[in-house]
Structures are given as C-alpha cells and as structure tokens.
C-alpha cells in the first residue's frame, strides 16, 4: 500500500517523508496530535476482537442485555466479516493511511508553526490496536507540553467521536491528569479545503464518463447510517453530513443532480434512509443509468468503501439493476489538499482556539446519559474551559 501511495505522489512525497524521518524523532516532541478513529483489523485474526469491542460499546450501539447479546452477535458475524477482509487483501488499510496522514500533517505543521514544533502524531483507535490508552501513554512518556485531540471523523456523532472521547475520559478517570495543555477538535466537516478534496475526488470520476452523459451523472453522497433512535435524541451527525455535502457541491460547480444516501445499517431497528443499495436500484428503475458514489464521512479507505461500495454495490447491486456505469470516488487518503485541510484545521485551532467548543460541551436535547454528562464535565476541566477557553 505504501508503495502505491508513493507512486501516486512521486514528486512531493520523497522529500516530505525524508524530512519526517530526519526531523522525527531526534527531537523531543512538543505538541502531540492525537488522531482518533475507530480503526479496522489489520489482519483477519483481529476481526473477532474488533467486532466484540464494537458490539459491547454502548456509546456506539445500544442493545438489550448488551453484555450477553453483543458478544453473541460479534461471534456470529466473525466468519462472514473475516471473509470480507480477505476479499479486500487480508485487512483494513486504516492504520497505514492514518499513519501516513499523521506524518505528512506533522511535517506540514512543523513548517507552519515552528513555535509549537516538533509536532508528533499518535494514533488512537477505538476498537483495534493502537488503542486510545496506548496513544495517551506514549504521549505522556514522550513528555509533550500540549496535546490536540483531533477526531478523524470530520462530522461529529455521539456514537463515533463521542465514543472515542469517552474512552479518553475513562483513561483519566482514576488517574492524575498530566501537566499537558489539552485541546479538542471534534468536528471539521465544512472546512473549505476538505470540501475541495471531495470535489476533486468527484471530478476525477466525472472525467471517466462520456461527454454526452457527464452532466446527467447522479452524484450520490453516501455515509454510514445511524439508528433513528439516535437521530431523534438529537445527534448532530445527519445535519453535519448534509453540511459537508452542501460545501462539496458549492466547490464542485457542476450541473449534476445529487442526493445523500446512507449505508451499512445493522440489526432490525429503523435507521436513517434511503439506503445506498436501495437508492441505486430505485434510480436504475427510473432510468438513471450513470452514477458516482461518494463516501463523505471517512477520510481514508476502509471496509465500507473497499467492500460494501466497490464489491457489493458497484460490482453486484448496480450490475444487477442494469446501471450502465457506476464509479466510486476515492476517499481523501493522501491527496495533497487533504493534508493541507488537516494542517489548516489544526494550525487555526492551535493559534486561535478555542480549546474546546461550546458546541461540543452542549448535549443532545434528549440525552439522558450520565456518561455523556460526566464526559462533558471532564473535557471542561481537561481543556481548562472556564479559565481560558478563548486564549488556549
Ligand atoms: Fe449526544 Fe449524550 S447522546 S450528548
């Protein structure tokens, strides 16, 4: 994967990577960038534990008698999910992409902000190693002065970023907080450069359509769905996804129609619709025969793009439905504008703050979770909200 990544960026990467290696880690890092994400199994052997952790995480999913039902569902699904990882090459590329993104981001930050350099990234996954706890321990051992907790889900949900943030709160529950200046970036889905990357990824695919149909191609933004229970509670995820779609279309400036659809529903309860596969079938019946799928909620390739979108929907569902041409836009991955987007978000945060946003500190209108309440209080304290929330 790394060799593929390097070929695509032959002009800029060698110098950047050399700089990273040279700068890296001969100097003690001053600023930590903690990159939160769910992670994915790097080998099929990790699939069982990965599913077990997801199905027992009540921030991610709520099931009746979860301590029993969660592990039961995880073990029932393990073989089927292992097969899917085998079909995409034997594991998830999330770690490799995140590590490369972190290296390029910190290299850019070292140049942009010498006052907070050296910057060092720490990968904090929720469901596979390196876990959130591993990242916090490594960062403390390095003796950093400040730490930016940076969600790699650009659009906030209490089920995803919220879960990772609760894991950090759990880590410090019975521990003395270290003498590190913490701050938090929990959402950045409308960053202009991020919208530009998504628009570029769509343009790359629009070019593949014949000029006679290009303006009619249906652009279908697709994001992981969410249980309607969470939507009704007031989770901000649906409108943040919609805001990313709108920002992307403003950058794209094409006449094509577009829609937002939802994928990856699990279990029998109702989730946000329309589902991506149903939308492909319905449009095909209506005579829409050219489409692009755009994963709008993840910053790198993962099982839902490489398997669900590429294999299940593009290769199987669309063909069966009679779609003439369907393309899938690449995730941001190592697009140079994506590295610039991350650097833009983090550098603005480091220089002008706030250390934690009021939006994050507020709760969903129908949230009754004591865990959410204590987590918000924890972040007020961790990020020194009262004393200097505006000064950083
Ligand atoms: Fe959203 Fe508690 S579920 S703040």
UniProtKB/TrEMBL annotation:
The keyword Thylakoid does not apply. It comes from the Eukaryota. It is found in: Mitochondrion inner membrane. Its EC number is 4.98.1.1. Pfam families: Ferrochelatase. One of its GO terms (molecular function) is ferrochelatase activity. SUPFAM superfamilies: Chelatase. It catalyses: heme b + 2 H(+) = protoporphyrin IX + Fe(2+). Pathway: Porphyrin-containing compound metabolism; protoheme biosynthesis; protoheme from protoporphyrin-IX: step 1/1. One of its GO terms (cellular component) is mitochondrial inner membrane. Its main location: mitochondrion. It is an enzyme of class 4 (lyase). Keywords: Heme biosynthesis, Iron, Lyase, Membrane, Mitochondrion, Mitochondrion inner membrane, Porphyrin biosynthesis. InterPro entries: Ferrochelatase, Ferrochelatase_AS, Ferrochelatase_C, Ferrochelatase_N. One of its GO terms (biological process) is heme biosynthetic process. Belongs to the ferrochelatase family. NCBIfam families: hemH. Catalyzes the ferrous insertion into protoporphyrin IX. This is Ferrochelatase. It comes from Pieris macdunnoughi.
